[in-house]
Design a protein that fits this description.
Blueprint: E1 2-7, H1 17-24, E2 52-54, H2 76-84, H3 105-114, H4 122-139, E3 147-152, H5 156-164, H6 167-191, E4 194-197, E5 203-206, E6 212-219, E7 225-234, E8 237-238, E9 244-245, H7 249-253, H8 257-276, E10 280-285, E11 291-295, H9 300-305, H10 309-320, H11 327-337, H12 347-362, H13 399-416, H14 422-432, H15 441-458, E12 460-461, E13 491-492, H16 494-508, H17 531-543, E14 547-551, H18 558-573, E15 578-582, H19 585-595, E16 599-601, H20 602-630, H21 639-645, H22 654-669, E17 684-687, H23 695-708, E18 711-716, H24 729-736, E19 742-743, H25 755-764, H26 768-775, E20 779-782, H27 784-800, E21 805-809, H28 812-828, E22 833-838, E23 844-847, E24 850-853, E25 857-862, E26 865-867, E27 872-878, E28 884-888, E29 897-899, H29 901-907, E30 908-910, E31 913-915, H30 916-919, E32 924-931, H31 937-943, E33 947-956, H32 974-983, H33 991-1002, H34 1005-1017, H35 1019-1022, H36 1024-1031, H37 1036-1041, H38 1045-1057, H39 1062-1072, H40 1080-1097, E34 1104-1105, E35 1109-1110, H41 1118-1145, H42 1160-1180, H43 1200-1203, H44 1212-1234, H45 1280-1287
Parallel strand pairs: 14-18, 14-19, 15-16, 15-17, 17-18, 20-33, 21-31, 21-32, 32-33
Antiparallel strand pairs: 1-3, 2-6, 3-7, 4-5, 6-7, 8-9, 10-11, 12-13, 22-23, 24-27, 24-30, 25-26, 27-28, 28-29, 34-35
Helix pairs in contact: 1-2, 3-4, 4-32, 5-6, 6-8, 8-14, 10-11, 13-14, 13-15, 14-15, 16-23, 16-24, 17-18, 20-22, 25-26, 27-28, 34-41, 34-42, 38-40, 39-40, 41-42, 41-45, 42-44
Length: about 1300
């Protein structure tokens, strides 16, 4: 496993990554040139071996006489220079720009707020501050990343083998571990070590390789055997032009992390099998189906005795989604949350301790039979006990086997996400190939590539966008554009696309059953529905839509509204005509009781429907088979199909087949179904918590309802948590036609009235919600330990008062810790006690404890109660074998249920605390939420709306989101953490929405302008000093040697921006007369400056694209000119489209433009100015506050309402763009004030602006008109290009 943590400089001496690593190094031989793990060398010394240098980037360091080579020992001063200072470890020369000083979000907000005009009213000022806070929260960067810690940790059984083995075993394990690391570093350099250059870093380029220092450690902070290596990767790489830049971490490095981690595990497994003859087996499978492999024969008791933090980190990354965007944040959080002080011991001391602990657990020979396993004997069946798998070559695996594996990979991808990348495919391909041992790393890589290609061929690519021609200079060797990051393609399957499209079609179909008497709704239900509840259910009951939607925020009374709908529907369509479905069995149980209707979880209902369909299909076939034989048909014609339906007929003679068919029919007809899932014409299926419904199951539900003539109603909140599978469909359906969605708006849950509006602000991501909750005392903060104490103390106090209190955490590890504290209190008070048993979460339980079951097991039941996921129980007794007798908390008088020991150990946890996902849908008196910096808005909203009376956010401020095992972080302000949480949207996107978002970013003015500026800059983009040898071959050496060479480069950049054709002018100026002998660069710089001033004085003004981007001078290179022309057209069309959409939707900022003039000539001028404003907003991502920008009153400082806060006073491009946009906004106002007003446009149509619609849903494969240089891709949507063409007429 590889975990990754970003490394920052704390600014405090003795707390950096360098201090930690160097401090831990043992005192080895002073003159050692190369660093080795070699445990015997440092066996008796406290500490760890010295670090060693790795990576192809080492070649660019040093000077003519001094170099760094891979394998050399890492010096403290060298590592400090590289990581802390970003300098050459040998010469100490800066490697590129210095690390920027970090400006906190709060400081940046204060600085921008100080620039606001004193003439603003109180309301205007509040709106401006809100806009600034939202903008800064979205755009403010974290502290400068100095490097990355890639921690390579093998499975625990490998560490145990290394710790308990002899010197020979230890050396082989170390060698295998290092070989796997080296191979992964090679993979990183080949595929993910990239940098960016050009305007806005728009060009992704290859590098000369990584610079890394590897430090081997052999124990955990708890003293367990934990062989692992910290690979500290510098955030400095050298590009092809020789310049040093930062890594493209977001676009290349981090997306590859999971695939690299899976590759490391596989290569390590191959190497250990070859070196030591070990075999591997699946030790456990997670709830999401992820396999955990260990060396076969290593006693489970040893793994448990020597495991602490590793299992916690695995659990944290599993909860975050193994390939999700939050993967490395989850790693960091787990490390931070479980860390203790590190103590350095000699390997001799550690080994002695480990062997003694192993002897107590597993006897004197704990590794007996683990190593030296033979290959299977010729002619025997592989997999015999005591043998190991035979290694193969890539060519040994047939195409059919690859196809079969590819199908499995595709199922895994499709079941966990709606869309995926090449790196996701590679990660799943590595997992799929884990059971196979390969002869060499190259053979494994060859096969993984082959499998990845097979999977990719079955996918549909959906990252469509209108792209422009890319000049040869900006293309990779394979012809792809450097403007597009490698491996950034977005894939999905046709099945998912078809499901999404079908759901949208059904949501627009109006031939479903409805209520003929909607008036009955007002008097139905256990409580009379409120006005907005009645309006919502009446809209649903009478719409006739096959798939209907109802949105209700937390506490809006969805259950009350649904109760009235269910009663009225059943009164008209018959008893049992409503079925309610929920994400879990526990939720379904509560839902059914609340609505008075049959209820089940989605998975079980679909299973029952499939069983019933299969039963009907079998009976239909058997009837037809009987008729076939009765009519003289041959038995041979139906025998194969009959064997599928009834395998007992496979060997029967023909004469007995007819009787066997009758017997099979009798058996099926007389075997009652223990449970049925009704679905008839006129029925209503209610899918509750629909945001958690995965796309494929939801499609299957609606498809069955459509076939039966029933109606489906999805009820939920798209701003709450979503499915762990491929989801996002509920939000997609709402966006498809928001005006048709029934909505509940009034909040009824909370005792305190302020919590209703505050929760809605939280739901919308409104920063003002933080201030509200803080002022009401609903925000507390502290270190992780302090926060856990706060939450536990609050829970203990509230439960002692007889109130229902809920402790909510973001992950299972924290929830288990809170539960353990709660149980400790109860045990001390004598409320729980007796024989104890270990549960799945690692906690103990005994009689009196509250536990929760995590897996459906219908066979474990008593009466109507049965063990299911999410059900809570009181423990009545624990048996000696670990089994339990439990009673349901909802019915304490019910007969106890026996839970077997294996079920208890794997599927039962303490129930005193829960995770946010499991809390969704629950309502209690009081709720206390542990808030971590990496949490998303949806999670915070769910957690803070569970309590009717009290909801408190307990914020961890000690840097858990950016912390790591090596370097402590300074505390953050709780308000800043909560603001960042609100800005983090974790809602999943369907394949269609992901494609739209990708296209929106690729076609934005920001992206196109950066590409245009980079291409237009030409030589300037790559550094004029690098172009001097070509432009001035006879004088370049003298100019580059001059101390004033930087001044010349600066003047060339300035002149280029002013519109001077530097490439043409420069040779002429240099050849006009001899340059100054002492300082030729200074002389030439003066000549260029004079030419620039003369050009400006002569009126040489550059034409502006969309009124914002300076147009480039004509290029003599047709390749360059084509690229510029196409991007200019796209920028203009995009600005027009943004303006059109804003005017059509009546976005608040358009009011600052003034009314549209009636006169055609003035209107054209007004539209041109307005388009410049739209282009500026799109380029800088301006976000309006929820209430919209404040309209100008008495002072032009309110321009910030439309243009956002001032971003920079230094950056030339930013300053000029701001000036041009300001002038355009003022010009639009003047034109509006001076000209007669135009009659207001009809709704949905912007005045004088061609219609440009966002892409609609459509089947894949519909052709569309292509922009020059664009290739048609599968999954593309129609109409986008045609719409843009209309927008270009502005």
């Amino acid at each position: 496993m590889i975990t990754v943590k970003a490394l920052y400089d704390t600014g405090r001496e003795g707390t950096s990554i360098v201090d930690y690593l160097i401090e831990s190094v043992a005192d080895g031989p002073a003159q050692e040139q190369h660093a080795h793990f070699d445990g015997t060398r440092y066996y008796t010394n406290a500490g760890t071996p010295p670090g060693r240098w790795l990576g192809g980037g080492l070649e660019g360091l040093g000077d003519d006489d001094r170099h760094l080579h891979a394998g050399r020992r890492v010096g403290a001063d060298q590592l400090r220079a590289l990581i802390q200072d970003g300098a050459d470890p040998i010469t100490h020369r800066p490697l590129g720009r210095a690390f920027p000083a970090h400006v906190s979000t709060a400081d940046r907000v204060r600085a921008l707020t100080a620039d606001l005009s004193a003439h603003l009213s109180a309301d205007e000022r509040a709106a401006r501050i809100e806009q600034i806070e939202r903008q800064v929260a979205r755009t403010n960067k974290n502290r400068a990343v100095h490097g990355f810690d890639f921690t390579f940790a093998p499975p625990k059984s490998v560490s145990v083998l290394w710790a308990l083995g002899d010197a020979g075993v230890r050396e082989q394990v170390e060698a295998a571990h290092h070989d796997a690391i080296n191979h992964v570093v090679d993979m990183m350099e080949a595929d993910s070590i990239r940098t960016r250059q050009g305007a806005g870093g728009v060009v992704q380029t290859e590098t000369c390789g990584v610079i890394a220092a590897a430090f081997d450690h052999w124990d955990s902070r708890e003293g367990d055997p934990h062989l692992h290596t910290h690979l500290v990767v510098a955030n400095r790489v050298q590009g092809p032009d020789g310049r040093w830049r930062t890594l493209d971490s977001r676009g290349a490095l981090m997306p590859a992390q999971v695939a690299l981690s899976e590759a490391y595990d596989n290569h390590l497994m191959d190497a250990l099998a070859a070196r030591l003859g070990v075999e591997w087996h699946v030790r456990s499978i997670s709830r999401t189906g992820r396999e955990h492999w260990e060396i076969d024969g290593v006693d489970d008791r040893l793994l448990k005795a020597f495991s602490t933090r590793h299992s916690q980190i695995e659990a944290a990354r599993e909860e975050a989604g193994a390939d999700g965007a939050g993967h490395w944040e989850a790693d960091a959080k787990a490390w931070a949350g479980t860390r203790s002080d590190k103590k350095h011991h000699s390997l001799e001391e550690l080994t002695r301790s480990w062997r003694e602990r192993a002897r107590q657990v597993a006897g004197d020979q704990p590794l007996r039979g683990v190593t030296g396993r033979p290959l299977p004997a010729p002619g025997t069946v592989p997999g015999q006990p005591g043998t190991r798998a035979h290694p193969v070559r890539a060519a040994d695996i047939t195409d059919d086997q690859v196809a079969q594996l590819a199908g499995g990979v595709l199922v895994a991808l499709q079941s966990s996400r709606a869309h995926w990348s090449t790196w996701n495919i590679r990660a799943e391909a590595q997992r799929a190939a884990r059971r196979i041992r390969f002869e060499t790393p190259g053979q494994r890589d060859q096969f993984t590539g082959r499998l990845t290609e097979a999977v990719t061929a079955r996918c549909v690519r959906v990252d469509y966008a209108t792209t422009a021609h890319t000049p040869a200079r900006y293309r990779r060797r394979d012809g792809s554009s450097r403007f597009v990051p490698e491996n950034s393609e977005i894939f999905t399957t046709q099945v998912l696309l078809d499901a999404e499209d079908a759901l949208v079609r059904w949501s627009r179909s109006t031939d479903a059953p409805r209520l003929a008497n909607p008036g009955a709704l007002a008097t139905s239900g256990r409580r009379a529905p409120s006005e907005d509840q009645l309006a919502a259910i009446e809209a649903v009951a009478t719409s006739g839509r096959r798939l209907d939607l109802m949105v209700g925020p937390a506490g809006a009374g969805k259950t009350t509204a649904l109760s009235a709908l269910v009663e009225a529907w059943q009164a008209e369509h018959g008893a049992g005509s409503v079925t309610a479905l929920a994400p879990s069995s526990a939720a379904a149980e509560v839902l059914g009781e609340s609505l008075g209707a049959p209820a089940d979880n989605v998975s079980m209902w679909l299973t029952l429907r499939r069983v019933a369909a299969e039963r009907d299909s079998h009976m239909d076939f058997l009837h037809r088979a009987a008729a076939w034989i009765d009519q003289g048909g041959r038995v041979a014609d139906i025998r194969d199909s009959l064997a599928v339906v009834d395998p007992t007929t496979a060997g029967l003679p023909d004469r007995r087949i007819r009787a066997a068919i009758d017997a099979a029919l009798h058996r099926i007809e007389n075997t009652p179904m223990t449970q049925e899932a009704r679905l008839e014409a006129g029925d209503l299926i209610i899918v509750d918590e629909a945001s958690m419904a995965a796309t494929i199951p939801l499609h299957e539900i609606v498809a069955q309802a459509d076939a039966a003539g029933a109606k489906v109603l999805c009820v939920g909140d798209p701003d709450q948590l979503s499915a762990v599978e491929a989801g996002g469909a509920f939000g997609m359906l709402i966006d498809a036609q928001p005006e048709k969605v029934a909505s509940l708006r009034q909040i009824h849950r909370f005792v305190d009235e302020w919590q209703g509006p505050a929760s809605l602000a939280l739901r919308a991501g409104d920063r003002r919600a933080v201030e509200t909750y803080t002022s009401r005392g609903a925000v507390r903060a502290g270190t992780q330990e302090e926060v856990l104490d706060q939450v536990h103390a609050a829970w203990a106090s509230e439960t002692a008062q007889g109130r229902t209190s809920l402790m909510v955490a973001a992950d299972n590890t924290t929830a288990a810790e809170l539960a353990a504290r709660a149980r400790s209190d109860l045990k001390s008070a004598g409320k729980v006690g007796g024989r104890e048993v270990t549960l799945a979460d690692g906690n103990q339980a005994s009689a009196g404890d509250l536990v929760v079951t995590r897996k459906n097991a219908r066979a474990l039941r008593s009466g109507r109660h049965w063990a299911h996921n999410g059900a809570t129980w009181h423990v009545q007794a624990v048996s000696a074998d670990g089994a339990m007798l439990v009673t349901p908390t909802a019915d304490p008088a019910a007969e106890a249920i026996h839970l077997p020991a294996d079920y208890v150990a794997a599927q039962v946890e303490l129930g005193y605390a829960t995770t946010i996902h499991r809390a969704q849908g629950r309502t209690v008196d009081d709720c206390h939420v542990v808030v971590t910096p990496d949490m998303g808005r949806q999670g915070l909203y769910v957690g803070m709306t569970r309590g009717e009376s009290v909801n408190v956010a307990h914020v961890i401020t000690d840097g858990a989101a950016v912390d790591d095992d090596l370097m402590p972080q300074s505390a953050q302000e709780p308000a800043n953490i909560l603001t960042n949480v609100l800005a983090r949207d974790t809602a999943p996107a369907t394949a269609r929405r992901a494609a739209d978002r990708h296209a929106d970013a690729a076609e934005s003015v920001k992206r196109l302008a950066d590409e245009y500026s980079t291409i237009a800059a030409g030589e300037a983009a790559w550094g004029w000093e690098n172009s001097l040898p070509r432009l001035l071959p006879s004088q370049a050496d003298r100019l580059l040697a001059d101390d004033y060479c930087d001044a010349l480069a600066k003047e060339l950049r300035r002149s280029h921006r002013a519109g001077l054709d530097v490439g043409t002018v420069l040779p002429a100026l240099a050849g006009a007369k001899p340059l100054n002998e002492a300082h030729p660069a200074a002389d030439l710089a003066n000549r260029v400056a004079k030419a620039r001033k003369a050009h400006t004085a002569a009126g040489g003004q550059r034409r502006l694209i969309a009124g914002l981007i300076p147009a480039a001078p004509p290029s003599a290179d047709p390749d360059i000119q084509r690229a510029l022309d196409e991007r200019e057209k796209l920028i203009t069309a995009r600005a027009s489209a943004v303006l059109h959409q804003a005017l059509t939707e009546g976005q608040p900022w358009t009011k600052d433009l003034g009314a549209v003039p009636a006169d055609a000539r003035v209107r054209a001028q007004w539209l041109e100015a307005a388009r410049t404003v739209a282009a500026y907003r799109d380029r800088y991502g301006i976000i309006d506050p929820p209430s919209g920008p404040v309209t100008a009153t008495t002072h032009d400082a309110s321009l910030e309402a439309t243009l956002g806060p001032v971003i920079s006073h230094i950056d030339h491009t930013v300053v000029e763009d701001r000036r041009r946009a300001t002038q355009a906004l003022l010009r639009a106002r003047r034109l509006s004030e001076q000209a007669p007003r135009k009659t207001p446009p009809a709704p949905g149509r912007a005045p004088g602006v061609p219609t440009v619609n966002r892409p609609g849903m459509r089947p894949v494969g519909t052709p569309q008109q292509q922009a020059p240089g664009q290739q048609q891709r599968r999954g593309q949507e129609p109409g986008r290009e045609q719409n843009r063409e209309r927008g270009r007429d502005l």
